[in-house]
């Protein structure tokens, strides 16, 4: 395939960025999107030009670092995948592909397509943990019966990889889906109830301090989430927050 890539180039968060056109050819449909960018970067390096900076790690859809806005969609046109799992067969010969970083005040650009998502880390650090001893004693774990539906919902919420697609998809750059998933995975389990009140208050407070917007109720976050995190988690977090606020 021959493609025209329009890629956002920006030196750092304080500098002005712009789109730069990069024609590329010889792209196979079985290549992943990141492999295509590797090919482009090798060509740029061979010509003595600066390669495009983009974030990646596992390339297995687990780490969540390969966060790119592709033709206006977080992680591109496919569903329930990360950018590293997107294959070039989703595009046609002659296509123009616009590639940008995730856009949010709370995700400042580091360089080119790489953004700083440490705001998510600070939300997690504010309360996304339990103080119960989990040293690996399976006998203790098995002494607490948990409804299968609740266990399943907790596991589904814990599947969030913190990629930030929910933020990028939201016109308010809301982190409600991410935060609610981290709240829900503990709120649904007895081990997480001990600190439930302080957890939701602290995490929502930190989310607001980071500059994320409020939920738009459009549901774009769930649609673009590579792990299919449900909007039900936002409703659960709202209930948890209301109860915690009443308790003081």
Spell out the blueprint of helices and strands.
Layout: E1 3-9, E2 18-24, H1 33-46, E3 69-70, E4 73-74, E5 96-100, E6 109-111, E7 114-115, H2 118-127, H3 138-142, H4 148-158, H5 165-169, H6 176-187, H7 190-193, H8 196-209, H9 220-224, H10 232-247
Parallel strand pairs: 1-5
Antiparallel strand pairs: 1-2, 3-4, 3-5, 6-7
Helix pairs in contact: 2-6, 2-8, 4-6, 6-8, 6-10, 8-10
- Name the overall outline: elongated
**What is the level-2 CATH architecture name of the largest domain?**
Orthogonal Bundle
Q: Domains counted in the coordinates: how many?
A: 2
Please state the structural category: alpha+beta
CATH classification, class level of the largest domain: Mainly Alpha
- Give the CATH superfamily of the largest domain: Alpha-helical ferredoxin
Q: How many strand segments?
A: 7
- Compressed to H and E, one letter per element, the order equals EEHEEEEEHHHHHHHHH
As a whole number of angstroms, the C-alpha radius of gyration is: 20 Å
pLDDT below 50 for ≥5 consecutive residues: which ranges? none
Which terms would index this structure?
248 residues, alpha+beta, Ubiquitin-like (UB roll), Fumarate Reductase Iron-sulfur Protein, Chain B, domain 2, 2 domains, five-stranded mixed beta sheet, two-stranded antiparallel sheet, 10 helices
């Amino acid at each position: 395939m021959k493609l025209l890539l329009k890629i956002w180039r920006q030196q750092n968060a304080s500098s002005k960025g712009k789109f730069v056109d990069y024609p590329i050819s010889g792209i196979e449909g079985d290549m992943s999107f990141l492999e295509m960018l590797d090919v482009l970067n090798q060509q740029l390096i061979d010509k003595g030009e600066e390669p495009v900076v983009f974030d990646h790690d596992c390339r297995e859809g687990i780490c969540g670092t390969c966060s790119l806005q592709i033709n206006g969609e977080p992680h591109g046109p496919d569903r329930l995948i990360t950018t590293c799992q997107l294959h070039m067969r989703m595009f046609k010969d002659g296509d123009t592909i616009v590639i940008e970083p995730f856009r949010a005040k709370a995700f400042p650009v580091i360089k080119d397509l790489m953004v700083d998502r440490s705001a998510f880390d600070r939300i997690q650090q504010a309360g996304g943990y339990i103080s119960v001893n989990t040293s690996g004693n399976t006998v203790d774990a098995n002494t607490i019966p948990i409804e299968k539906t609740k266990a399943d919902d907790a596991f589904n919420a814990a599947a969030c990889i913190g990629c930030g697609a929910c933020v990028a998809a939201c016109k308010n750059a809301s982190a409600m889906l991410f935060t609610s998933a981290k709240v829900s995975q503990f709120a649904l389990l007895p081990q997480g109830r001990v600190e439930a009140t302080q957890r939701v208050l602290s995490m929502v407070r930190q989310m607001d301090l980071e500059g994320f917007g409020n939920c738009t109720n459009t549901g774009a976050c769930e649609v673009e989430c590579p792990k299919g995190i449900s909007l039900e988690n936002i409703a659960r977090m709202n209930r948890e927050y209301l109860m915690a606020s009443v308790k003081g």
